[in-house]
């Protein structure tokens, strides 16, 4: 549980590591950089939010999980054991979390956006996939992927087949996306900005924090509400920092 933030502590937000992609060697470099970052904030972190797509693919079988990622998982366990609250939101690449993080590392996992209030600041946090207008194809696929029967059918595949198949489709998805995440698309075309504005018509939030987009954005929605996209840890190595009053988007330089 994260309570009000004291002057000497901060809440940190980061997302979209996609560990495992595009290959083991490149992924390991990013994983080591993530561990360095987490180590650098451990003395003043009031909480750490990882807002989706930690892995390029993750599926928790009944008796096994994908191998690898030992350095990151070990560091998260160390920080959690030290009493730092860690909250994970599932993304579109790792939506099949089902208890491993909770039982092994005492990490809270959310599958949908959630509201938090600290120091009288109201914050909506989520990965961001499937929100806002358009993308009906993905929204349909998400319902299929999260359907209990479909999850069970996938789980009976041998992990070598299941993970191999998932990695293949992940690569094809990236080829189709291309460079669309390399620049700001404009407020009318950034679907998470559109979504945030729609939410604001019904309920006030001081900050909206999302991942998924892979492009760091700090956009004023109104005079007292902002949309922040966390970028990624593939090209940008960006994160957000909340000091109890304000949220700043920063870049980790190691």
Give the topology, please.
Layout: E1 10-14, H1 24-41, E2 45-51, H2 70-81, E3 86-89, H3 100-105, E4 108-110, E5 114-118, E6 121-126, H4 136-145, H5 148-155, H6 159-177, H7 191-200, E7 207-210, E8 216-222, E9 225-230, E10 238-242, E11 247-251
Parallel strand pairs: 1-2, 2-3, 3-4, 6-7, 7-9
Antiparallel strand pairs: 1-10, 5-6, 8-9, 10-11
For the largest beta sheet, what order do the strands appear in spatially? 4-3-2-1-10-11
CATH class: Alpha Beta
Net shape: globular
Strand residue percentage: 15-25%
Instruction: Compute the CA-based radius of gyration.
Output: 18 Å
Mean pLDDT: 87
Q: CATH homologous superfamily, by name? A: Metallo-dependent phosphatases
CATH fold descriptor = Purple Acid Phosphatase, chain A, domain 2
Judged by helices, strands and strand pairing, the structural class is: alpha/beta
Biggest β-sheet strands, sense, barrel = 6 strands, mixed
How many strand units? Answer: 11
The succession of helices and strands, N to C, reads EHEHEHEEEHHHHEEEEE
Distance between the termini: 30 Å
- Portion of residues in helices? 25-40%
What's the architecture, going by CATH? 4-Layer Sandwich
**Contiguous uncertain segments of 5+ residues:** 175-179
User: How many individual helices?
Assistant: 7
User: How many structurally independent domains?
Assistant: 1
Write a structural description:
It is a single chain. The chain has helices at 24-41, 70-81, 100-105, 136-145, 148-155, 159-177, 191-200, and strands spanning 10-14, 45-51, 86-89, 108-110, 114-118, 121-126, 207-210, 216-222, 225-230, 238-242, 247-251. It has 254 residues and is α/β, with parallel strands linked by helices. Strands 4-3-2-1-10-11 form a six-stranded mixed sheet, with helices on one face. Strands 5-6-7-9-8 form a five-stranded mixed sheet, covered by helices on one side. Strand 1, helix 1 (24-41) and strand 2 form a beta-alpha-beta unit. Helix 1 packs parallel to helix 2.
């Amino acid at each position: 549980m994260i309570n009000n933030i004291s002057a000497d502590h901060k809440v940190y937000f980061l997302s979209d590591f996609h560990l495992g992609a595009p290959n083991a060697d490149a992924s390991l470099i990013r994983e080591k950089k993530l561990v360095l970052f987490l180590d650098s904030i451990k003395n003043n972190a009031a909480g750490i939010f990882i807002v989706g797509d930690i892995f390029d693919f993750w599926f928790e079988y009944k008796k096994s999980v994908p191998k690898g990622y030992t350095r990151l998982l070990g560091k998260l366990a160390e920080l959690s054991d030290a009493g730092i609250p860690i909250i994970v939101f599932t993304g579109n690449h790792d939506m099949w979390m089902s208890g491993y993080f909770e039982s092994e590392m005492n990490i809270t996992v959310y599958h949908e956006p959630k509201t938090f209030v600290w120091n009288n600041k109201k914050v909506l946090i989520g990965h961001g996939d499937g929100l806002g207008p358009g993308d009906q194809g993905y929204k349909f696929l998400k319902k299929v992927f999260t359907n209990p029967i479909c999850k069970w059918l996938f789980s009976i595949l041998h992990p070598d087949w299941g993970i191999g198949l998932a990695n293949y489709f992940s690569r094809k998805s990236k080829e189709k996306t291309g460079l669309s995440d390399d620049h700001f698309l404009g407020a009318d075309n950034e679907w998470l900005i559109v979504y945030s504005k729609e939410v604001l018509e019904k309920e006030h939030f001081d900050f909206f924090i999302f991942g998924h987009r892979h492009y760091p954005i700090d956009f004023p929605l109104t005079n007292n509400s902002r949309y922040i996209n966390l970028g990624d840890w593939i090209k940008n190595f960006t994160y957000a920092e909340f000091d109890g009053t304000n949220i700043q988007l920063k870049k980790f330089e190691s």
